[in-house]
């Protein structure tokens, strides 16, 4: 049973007609699915990355706004502190608390000897330059008083506590 070339051609021809040459559609399917999955995964990861960046941007803007508000509040508080630490404000508060200026100081040497003459502080008349905060020009009781020399006693004596509140006024948020 020898086959001739024509018979081989005929069989081979029929086989080639039954099986098309080149990559088949069955072989292309996994490659197409892989490419589609890679594209879908890339798009999903870009979407997630974009969402995370937007969330971070919102947090950043919120923190910047809080920083600005806190900076404004800190500046307002610093102005209040500066107002309370001015020399005349400190002196006014000290007088309200019944404090008086001290006399000449006395010092202790390391060996225990006293240098200077210690003497107790006494309340001396102190001229006031204007009305105290919270009082009008007419006086605390609302009666008009004629301008004249300062009163010989301080505004608050050590025996009677002052009625002025000792807490500082409420601070604003700086806006």
From TrEMBL:
Residues 1-21, 73-175 are annotated as: Disordered. Residues 133-165 have a biased composition (Low complexity). Residues 166-175 have a biased composition (Pro residues). Pfam families: DivIC. This is Septum formation initiator family protein.
